[in-house]
Design brief:
The protein is mostly beta strands. It is built from two helices and twelve strands; from the N terminus they run ααββββββββββββ. This is Lipoprotein.
């Protein structure tokens, strides 16, 4: 009988301990809190961001330096980048494709001189992918060959394809290729800012030299474009580094 009592007492003690443990877990006691839910990373709709770029009037003023081309190293330079929507559809002069279009202007100022270029940029309104651009005044044209894909749920650190194509020798129909380019996008953290960077690598057919460029735009939390922009480009004998204040 005494052994049965001892066994019963042990069972009661074990049951009581189990009840206490369960009660502590239920109320968060016992000095151990449940782990917090992980914070979901902010996502960005890159298609919405680029739709703003293509279809809204925007102006950014940048400053920085230009090097090479016989200029003193670190020569101060400023640039005004302007985009403006255009109505209707436009026809690319080389590819002949019909697509939505907009105007993009760049004005560079350095050493007391000013250099301006205006391009008609063509894009697919459905996918917000570039179809190419043309400046008849400069006889400078390019056209896409393959399309990329802009993510609608991009996070910092994500990258992706943004198409590829040809930079032509001229804007005449049937023109040969000066360079073949590949475009990519990347979402980057820059201090407190998040940037959408559009990057290009273009290999020159005649020499094999690779030109590189990057245009980064601040992404707001709602995927709209912010006021900050940076621009860099490395050509055969000249390089640029500019950004907004």
């Amino acid at each position: 009988m005494s052994e049965q009592l001892k066994s019963s007492a042990r069972l009661v003690a074990a049951a009581s301990l189990a009840a206490i443990v369960l009660a502590l877990q239920a109320c968060g006691g016992g000095g151990s809190d449940a782990p917090p839910e992980p914070v979901k990373p902010t996502t960005y709709d890159l298609q919405a961001a680029m739709t703003q770029y293509y279809t809204k009037a925007n102006t950014w003023s940048l400053s920085g330096t230009v090097s090479g081309g016989g200029l003193p190293a670190g020569t101060p330079v400023s640039m005004v980048l302007t985009t403006a929507p255009m109505t209707g559809m436009g026809t690319h002069p080389v590819s002949g494709r019909l697509s939505s279009h907009m105007s993009q202007s760049m004005t560079l100022n350095f050493l007391g001189t000013s250099h301006s270029s205006t391009y008609e940029s063509f894009f697919d309104a459905g996918t917000v992918q570039s179809e190419g651009q043309a400046s008849l005044a400069d006889d400078s044209c390019e056209a896409s060959v393959t399309k990329g894909r802009l993510s609608k749920t991009a996070k910092v650190g994500d990258t992706g394809p943004n198409g590829s194509g040809i930079e032509y020798l001229s804007c005449k129909a049937g023109s040969g290729a000066e360079a073949n380019y590949v475009d990519t996008w990347a979402v980057k953290q820059d201090g407190a800012r998040v940037l959408l960077c559009l990057e290009r690598s273009a290999k020159v057919v005649a020499t094999g030299f690779t030109r590189t460029g990057s245009q980064c735009h601040q992404l707001n939390a709602d995927s709209s474009l912010g006021s900050y922009v940076s621009f860099s480009e490395k050509l055969e004998d000249t390089s640029f580094e500019l950004k907004t204040p």
